[in-house]
Amino acid sequence: MPEITGFSFPNDIHVTWSLMIVMYPYITGFVAGSFIVTSLYHLFDRQEFKPVARLAMATSFAFLLVASLPLQLHLGQPQRGPFVIITPNFTSAMAGFGILYSFYMLVLVLELWFVWRQEIIERARRSRGMKRALYAALALGTYDTSAEAIEIDHKAIKILAGIGLPAACMLHGYVGFIFGAIKANPWWSTPLMPVIFLLSAAVSGIALLILLYQVYAKLDRRPVVATCVQALASWLWFFLILTITLEELELIVMAYEKSESWLIISELLTTRLSFSYVTMQMIVGGLIPLILLAVVVLMNRYLHEKVRNTLATVAAFLTLIQVFSMRWNIVIGGQLLSKSLRGLRSPYEPEIFGREGVLMAIALFVAPFVILWVFDRVLGIEEPPGADGHGNPPAAPPPVEATAASHVP
Amino acid sequence: MSDCHDGCNGSRREFLSGTLKLAGGAVVTVIGASALASSSSSPTRAPRPGGGEYDWDEHLWAYLVDTTKCIGCGSCARACKAENDVPEGFFRTWIERYVVGTEDSHVDSPNGGMDGFPPVQVGFVANKSFFVPKICNHCRATPCTQVCPVGASYRTKDGAVLVDAESCIGCGYCVQACPYGSRFIHPATHTASKCTWCYHRITKGLKPACVTVCPTQARQFGDLKKDGDPVRAVVEHDRVQILQGHLLTEPQCYYTHLDKEVR
After folding, report:
1. Which one of A101, A283, B60, B183 has the minimum C-beta count within 10 Å?
2. Are residues A76 and B169, on separate chains, in Cβ contact within 8 Å?
3. Which residue of A8, A79, A83, A135 is the best one to mutate when testing the B interface, meaning the one whose CB has the most B CBs within 10 A?
4. What is the dihedral of CA A397, A403, A406, A409, to 10 degrees?
């Protein structure tokens, strides 16, 4: 039994929303954050993001594929999960999940297809047998790589990116809404919540891409483009400043207003969450990366490439911890506090094994990277040399007959 | 297919239009399935209990607590547990003890008050002490039914807030949304559970178990649609309070002589 300080309503001593509900916003945060990065290139033509644009889109897709799993794993009656889509109660914020998720999935898959279309056609032409059938199926029956077709691809990518960006933001802002619209819980109930979630999603997405880019460049034996790292670090700094400012503003307003709940929330933050909030979210994951990124951004021209990469990578790693801590402190922290506003329960310790345990959470976090690896094997994340990343062809494709003939023993 | 690489705009257009048609078909299917599911599940969601004799249009239930009368015996919590098979460590009703001084206050509810209350020593000068029974407030504008993603939580026409355990998905959103801590996820069924005002009893003309066993009539149950009902008289003519009125949930559990310390 958990220990209680003060007085909790007797049913409030149970933590109903487990580690899986911490993982859910963490994972959807990567979906939205990566899409923001890819949009900076595909929608806003920021050329400095070109080296990571395709990686970012594939990352968003990989995380999207597992985004609904933590929810499903959390349900008491998982077999009834589809009821949320089949018989939704539209007054519930949660009922929107199926619609937003499916819509974003549709837009993202379409955009992926247009961006990777050339690649798919190339591979269909190069391969034989089952492989060829697979790529032919992925090409959806059209092998058109004429200049006109490419132009259409361009337009489609632009339009889809234009729809996808608000869709991705809605998907994640909505997660913040799920918490922010609960008036029963003063630690959650604030209109700032969706905004904070969205900004921290951008933080986590950019941070993850800084790390992935370094790893991917190493594995692929490609040089890391300094301007890209620099741009990612700048945007990470920008979004981190906004996130932490809003996270603190929320508390400052509460404290200055001397709101009814401030007494218990201040106790929550300084006792139960002193490690995860003060140490991890604010200092290790907040203040330190803010300083490291400030060095990268403000002292750019004095930095050796290795120093820049190292500083950006360390800062990115720490901000990933910051975002996880933030999710933890919101989801779990909000349940340590009783709605009596008079009591706190002892810290929640997730189980190790089991459906909602630590191992499952790790598996959920690792799964998108496995998906990314498969994606790379099937479609190739890195664009072929010479291509412009918008879906333009690398060079004149070899004639099909010649490719096919070369495979004949 | 390989002979198509010179220009298949037409085929792509055909493909896209085909896809649109398919998508349209899928939407129709989903809507149809949803209509089927809702029509087939509506009778279970809004049962007309009592097999014809009970007409829920004729009643509007309300609960009344006089905190000055509660002696903290815990009979109500024990009766509730027995009547509704409430699992260990969870509560559909409980009793809180308040010890209040000028400088400080102390609140507790050991085991929900089921075993009564052992003497308590407080480190301040206590001016008053009292018990407050708690129960689901069966709010008219309840956030718990608002947030249920599948409509498994609902309010009946006679004013009770219930859970359809057959369609509850066990997401726990209602548990988070209830400001009073009245809901929990049942450890055996993994669905939301809460006080029903003993709906199986009140639809047969009985009182909820907690009201029936209360030795001091601190807990009362009545019908706001019935002339001469004592609870209705109090609610209509006396000064009554509700819990956490600022949240505008419109509780149908009324209190008299509620102290400022009670939330």
Report:
1. A283
2. yes
3. A83
4. 160
Burial class (CB in 10 A: 0-12, 13-18, 19+), B113: buried
| Pairing assessment for the beta strands A342-345 and B61-66 based on DSSP bridges | unpaired
Q: Which amino acid is at B112?
A: G
**Averaged pLDDT, A349-359:** 95
**Angle CA A27–A32–A33, to nearest 5:** 90
Fold of B56-140+195-256: Alpha-Beta Plaits (3.30.70)
**A246-263: string of b/e by CB count within 10 Å (b at 16+)?**
bbeebeeebeeeeeebbe
Record: contact A342-B263, CB cut-off 8 A: yes
ipTM (interface predicted TM)? 0.90
Give the pLDDT score at A400: 41
- Quick one: DSSP state of residue A341? S
Q: Are A234 and A77 in contact (CB under 8 A)?
A: no
Per DSSP, the three-state class of B152 is coil
Q: Which CA distances in Å does B51 have to A34, A47, B54, B158, B201?
A: 57, 71, 7, 15, 14
A234 min Cα distance to partner chain B (Å):
38
CA atoms in the 13 A half-sphere facing the CB of A291: 6
Give the range among A48-57, A161-170, B42-51, B109-118 with minimum mean pLDDT.
B42-51
Q: Are B61 and B222 in contact (CB under 8 A)?
A: yes
B 109-128 residues with CB < 8 A to A: 109, 111-112
pLDDT of residue B28: 47
**Which member of A84, A140, A185 has the closest CB to residue B149?**
A84
Residues B224, B230, B233: CA angle, nearest 5 degrees: 65
CA dist A389 → A50, A145, A312, A397 (Å): 7, 15, 24, 16
Instruction: Specify the DSSP class assigned to residue B173.
Output: H
Which single residue is written with the structure tokens 């859910």?
Answer: A24
Query: What is the rounded CA–CA span in Å between residue A203 and residue A188?
Result: 20
From its phi and psi, is residue B159 left (phi > 0), alpha (psi between -120 and 50) or beta?
A: left
- Rounded CA-CA distance B170/A80 in Å is 9
Helices marked H in A220-345: 226-257, 262-267, 288-298, 305-331, 333-336
Structure tokens at B122: 């407080």
**Are residues A229 and A312 in contact, defined by beta-carbon separation less than 8 angstroms?**
yes
Average pLDDT over chain B, rounded to an integer: 87
The region, left, alpha or beta by phi > 0 then psi within -120 to 50, assigned to residue B47 is: beta
Q: Which two tokens stand for residue A357?
A: 């345990």
CB B230 within 8 A of CB B222: yes
Q: Architecture of domain B143-193 in CATH?
A: 2-Layer Sandwich (3.30)
Pairwise CA distance, residues A27 & A228, whole Å: 24
Domain with CATH 3.30.70.20 in chain B: 56-140+195-256, 143-193
B91 CB near a chain A CB, below 8 Å?
yes
